[in-house]
Input
Amino acid sequence: AVRRFTVDSSDGQHRFRIRGRVQFDAARGDFDDDIAFVARQAHEPPEYGTIIRRARLGALGYMYGNWEWQLEVDFSDQEVDFANAYVAYLMPTGRLAIGHFKEPYSLESNTSSRRITFLERGASVDAMRPSRQLGIMYSTLRQNWHGAFGFFGGEGVSINRAVEEGYAFSGRLTVSPWADGGNFLHFGGSASHRQNAFDKEQDIWAPVRMRTREGARAIDLRLIGRDDIEAVEDFNRFVLEAAWGIGSFSLQAEYNRVDFNLDETAKLIAHGTDSNPSNSLTMDGFSIQASHFLTGEHRNYRPSNGTFGRVTPQRNFDPASGNWGAFEIAARYATVDASEHSRIGRGQEMDHYTLGLNWYPNPDLVVKLNLMQFDAKRDDVESEGRVVAARLQYEF
Amino acid sequence: AVRRFTVDSSDGQHRFRIRGRVQFDAARGDFDDDIAFVARQAHEPPEYGTIIRRARLGALGYMYGNWEWQLEVDFSDQEVDFANAYVAYLMPTGRLAIGHFKEPYSLESNTSSRRITFLERGASVDAMRPSRQLGIMYSTLRQNWHGAFGFFGGEGVSINRAVEEGYAFSGRLTVSPWADGGNFLHFGGSASHRQNAFDKEQDIWAPVRMRTREGARAIDLRLIGRDDIEAVEDFNRFVLEAAWGIGSFSLQAEYNRVDFNLDETAKLIAHGTDSNPSNSLTMDGFSIQASHFLTGEHRNYRPSNGTFGRVTPQRNFDPASGNWGAFEIAARYATVDASEHSRIGRGQEMDHYTLGLNWYPNPDLVVKLNLMQFDAKRDDVESEGRVVAARLQYEF
Amino acid sequence: AVRRFTVDSSDGQHRFRIRGRVQFDAARGDFDDDIAFVARQAHEPPEYGTIIRRARLGALGYMYGNWEWQLEVDFSDQEVDFANAYVAYLMPTGRLAIGHFKEPYSLESNTSSRRITFLERGASVDAMRPSRQLGIMYSTLRQNWHGAFGFFGGEGVSINRAVEEGYAFSGRLTVSPWADGGNFLHFGGSASHRQNAFDKEQDIWAPVRMRTREGARAIDLRLIGRDDIEAVEDFNRFVLEAAWGIGSFSLQAEYNRVDFNLDETAKLIAHGTDSNPSNSLTMDGFSIQASHFLTGEHRNYRPSNGTFGRVTPQRNFDPASGNWGAFEIAARYATVDASEHSRIGRGQEMDHYTLGLNWYPNPDLVVKLNLMQFDAKRDDVESEGRVVAARLQYEF
Output
């Protein structure tokens, strides 16, 4: 693409590209009385907030014909975080990658943050999805289906003298019986087993975080996973996912579940008499959403890796020519039941509703507006909130 | 420019550029006896120091004809800081930008750190100028005058669960009756109203920092604004600015002022019996400087945005051909009266004198040498100091 | 090179290049009983670990014919660290650089981490080599010998209000009587005098760190230099180095030594009755290694700067054509005697053995496997360990 910054060698063996994305978010919230109790914080939340949600700069390319590589760093929160950083060997029908990348998990999680419909991923996915990890993964390069299977470490990016890292086996399989532009059908599932990390210095299992917020990050309200789960020996993640598109209209849904296996002794040490009597906890939820392009575009489903790609407006924004870009309306319902927690009284639940309006002035620019409503609950106390959030996103 | 790294698309609709700057500073100081008292620190300052003052890497470009974008990250102090990060829509006579950029404020502040005459900005500007913020700003694209007006958040780049961000309305207007190479005249002014942020966790107004040092950062002597001002509800900034150039000679001056409005209750909680009895504080000062190019160049005044741009030597450094680049001599006087502080005894004042010699071997490289003398005062105790500081700066 | 990302101006006066490197490491260890005592840590070390050892992104180039510049940032450990960041003026037979770069010290230290034979540098070099510093350095550009001499500050990259930075004079001289592809002979030496930094706030000399680990960073076992040396006024570093290559076979060796000069009063304040009675401490050790390319390549010795460069496989990995890249086997013995410490009982010693197998699928990709064995000792307690470590490295 001429508009992007890409250099190809004349023999077609090498490509080099600089890439980046920036997302500015703002949110305004209106919360009911017991919100601080439900989110377990000592003070009322701010009423509005802004944030640079993501700011990534990176390079990527191909070398010597069969090798692909990336190095992408995220600077949001004024910290350094690695996004994709890997090298992969390309074969005719598959790809073997080593480095730092997303575990194969869920349609919404494996879809880039630049390509999701709302500001944040559906609450159930957002809470339960794994972060990027160092690992090795084989994935298929096929037309109508996608499989990926990998072995991953446990947040072992930085030096840590005391922690015996965990590890995970994770896989995902998706099929698309048909996929032709806006008309597509997608089914898939993921499963992952993770052995938890163990901190030898503190002599405890690493706390496990499964957190999501009110649908925006510009206000930091921890409605699910406010407190990490303690004493987790290992846990299993499961996803069932489906999507269907016909022209400008599409549906997307997934069910997410995590089963935790607690270490009884560690649990009693951590929580004492507040311990949950059960050593098997389950957290689950689902997200379902519909989207419709008012201007005739469609979601860009990619069957070869079971994710959504970039939306390309039929006409770029150019008011002089009467062109306004693409507009999409969307609605979502998501629910998470994290009422089971290693410590009694720390579980949380949420129902979450979103209405969205997206404006795509051109393929590299998106403006999103989300109206959200949630019912959240902790310890039989319920609270509600309403949030308006907006995002301006550009990429290069 | 062929020497820089820029890629243009063949249709002229897109441009991509990688940009960076690095500034290495060294300083040596000689301070009088009471300096630790005046700077309110427990130990004598170091006699010399070095620092990487700025180290920025970024990308910027145009896309689809009418959109401009930047993403620039600063790594100095081995931390991540955002410099410019925005997207702007370009119209025939104006520009609407959203993202993270400088508030419109002052000739010296809005001029890039690569283009100022001395190592640091004049003490009054440096102390009172706002930092970059997330915001939305309209600015003109006109020949002989410049106007900019924006609405800005309050340091809301990162997640913060407890702080209700403040906000500001800021504007700047400049006119240049004539501007033709080194011959120019510039008048301008800025005004800004900022509502302060409020920390709901600590139940206090965010401390307000208006700080400047001895004219260099390689030695960190906090002669103005050592202690943040507490209990500030809101404050107003004002600037009056002027510049005049004739050939290789130029003058530049500005007056800076901030009026703080304190919350009496919060002030008494913060400082008790040490509280300043007044709830209206004023901080002000001015900086005036003269510059002369020994080698015939002139300051690069840009009337369309009311700032100074790059100095281009008539001949680049090339000793074999007898060319030595451009040389500039400069002098500055600055004064800041920050004697009014929310807490008695924390106010500071300074008179600051600088002699400068700049060497421009080529357009991308600058070497600066500053000889400085200051008289600083706190609580009727005065101290003086003399500082020699040098900078090597390159950009790409 | 067409495969890299480089842009040259048509007049040959300017060059711009984006550069990066990523190293993923994994290690598994098996340690004897007293290892926690010897490494002076409260818990048993993890048995395995992973890490992003280096992840660097940077730009570099030439400008106006005679100037060279770099800006390279390292993001490993999710922190910001400067690697090379300097500007240099090029003359016919020399080069004057100002900025942040390696002190001239040792063949193994001055060789890039991308070009060393094993995962980590030999234990004696790794423990005693200086980090990059801000400084000014002249180095020769000659055919058969290399000299470099510089003046360096003391970790003065960031602002520090209280520390009087130290400084160092450092030089290195190497000669290569012959150097023709894989056939080379190299002799050299370095010397450096460093005045230690002084913390005026805590009123102590800056602690001096001379640390190395078990030969990998993915497990952080501090077998040498676990405790910084206190009360150091100044110290001198010395290196003697040699290398010899004949075809695919090569040898490399160096002796490293540091002599510390302690401040007696400061030592007694820091350690009291545990103080080492002597004020002159010596730490020394040596590393010797042999390497052989099974596939006919050779180490890329560069006599003009006395370091090793990139290994270029005779045939890139391409199984379809029966090509597998380059393979190298190597062995190393290293020993460090850091038994003298400012505080009694804190000295450590180590003998370290490594077997290595390197695979170079192409010039930009290296896979390393190291089998290591060490005998470490503290306070007459000895412990042993065996470590398997692997690295995947790519660069662009």
User: Anything to note?
Assistant: The longest helix of chain C spans residues 264-271. The two ends of chain C are 11 Å apart (CA to CA). Chain C has a mean pLDDT of 96.
